[in-house]
Design brief:
289 residues; globular; 75% helix; homodimer; Farnesyl Diphosphate Synthase; mainly alpha; 11 helices; two-stranded antiparallel ribbon
């Protein structure tokens, strides 16, 4: 079994060829799409998809278009999130955001382009596979990315800003905005390998709890970072829908550890070696807490 | 054979049920998506898709998710086109545009949502069909809508504004921004009915020439409308990439008629009754010129 870093490197090398395989894209549009796609993410979603597929006995070459499509969807969501009308961020991972470099018009089009490219890439790859597994994976990914999934989470995040955090609302936002694409990675990877319904459900559970833990530790890091770096008082003051604002630091740490345990409990139901997934889940805690 | 109005009515009645079949969409997002989707378009693309499918012996009920998906893609492109960072339009078809009512943030998300919903709807419908025709149709639609298709045309339109019209550039913009989704309608409708490669190619040619004629007559109507209503001098003055700015009124009229002839020549290669398509193409001229 390979490591998550191996899957990351394989993804890294495939993203541009996959995008360019679609045909002649106008230069400015292609540059804007490639800029954000290659801006140096951790490639967690495609790596998990490839790992899930290989763990279940599938072929990662066959899964690569789906892995790259998932990363394109994640990337488009960041481009649109950063727009002035949404989060209005000038920087992401220390680099100027898309609209700062290419203008708002091109940032909107580059986001649209990446979302469409993802669906186009998967449809083409699935047709070439000549069985239904590719189409199952595609349906899974589009559903988790869509208006009952990631976009729903983003919508509630936007609408709720400034309101009083409520547990059901914070859970809704995190589960859709963050966990949905991790569930998609696990489910799609397993589906591509021909895993059965129960196995796919175990993958989804792992993705869900991993996503919740991910968001909790991210919220913690924000607050702890603020305290360390700016002496700012944690939580509450910003009116943001975070787990820390709702539960405080100590309980969020506890909750995150519980989510990791649940993730690993779920993934250990799979009849294969799942050490990679369990280590990855634990590494979230080690890194953040 | 039914009329295009029949197909339009059938589409009209299916759009909301199709969207809602995706599951629980947050209210504000659903309202924004439905507002633009039901803002009263002519439904030309889905109607042509259904007509092409039935003409070739296919079942329009089976084709309906693809027809609705195509209209969702058309609608998302209008929402994003109207945004302040792009065309900055306050009104469309006499109604306030999406961002005027729901704000820019929700207009961006509603557009993303409709594009994603289109792919999700097609993937689900294709899986239920249990043969490859649905996936072929989906691949056709996503390709024509994408970064080598409609989004490419939109990009070049945005980039070229204010420049000197050049024939190759105007042709590129019109063929992608306008013709691509009409080609998609014809190709996908025929593919869903199991038409062969030559028949699908004839449908694509019809869609291409129809799209070019459509854009030419639209440009003409703009100019003639301006002259009639505001006494404004036609063409040239706006620095827009239109056929009229390039060729003048008289030659654009001639070119549009030639495109209609070519469209009808192509569609008459199909071994079925294509009167509906020929009448529709001619109606463009009658209405506009």
């Amino acid at each position: 079994m390979r490591s998550l870093d191996d899957y990351r490197n394989a993804t890294e090398q495939s993203l541009l060829p996959m995008l360019r395989s679609l045909g002649e894209i106008p230069d400015r549009l292609r540059e804007a799409m490639e800029y954000s796609l290659m801006a140096g993410g951790k490639r967690i979603r495609p790596s998990l998809l490839l790992a899930a597929c290989e763990t279940a006995g599938g072929d990662t070459r066959m899964a690569m278009p789906f892995a790259c499509a998932l990363e394109m969807i994640h990337t488009y969501s960041l481009i649109h999130d950063d727009l002035p009308a949404l989060d209005n961020d000038d920087l992401r991972r220390g680099k100027p955001t898309s609209h700062m470099i290419f203008g708002e018009d091109m940032a909107i089009l580059a986001g649209d382009g990446l979302l469409n490219a993802a669906a186009e890439l998967m449809a083409g790859a699935a047709l070439r596979l000549d069985d239904l597994q590719g189409f199952h994976a595609m349906e899974i990914i589009m559903r988790h990315a869509g208006v009952t999934g990631m976009i729903a989470g983003q919508t509630m995040d936007v609408i709720s800003e400034g309101g009083t955090p409520r547990e059901d609302l914070v859970e809704y936002i995190h589960s859709h905005k963050t966990a949905d694409l991790l569930e998609a990675a696990m489910e799609a990877g397993l589906a591509l390998a021909g895993a059965n319904r129960d196995q796919i459900a175990a993958g989804r559970e792992y993705g869900y709890h991993l996503g919740m833990a991910f968001q909790m530790t991210d919220d913690l890091l924000d607050v702890i970072g603020d305290v360390k770096m700016m002496g700012k008082k944690p939580g509450m003051d910003e009116g943001k829908m975070t787990w820390v604002a709702l539960r405080g630091i100590a309980d969020t740490e506890k909750d995150a550890r519980e989510e990791i345990d649940r993730a690993n409990e779920a993934i250990s139901r799979l009849p294969w070696n799942t050490a990679l997934f369990q280590e990855f889940a634990r590494s979230l805690i080690d890194r953040h807490l």
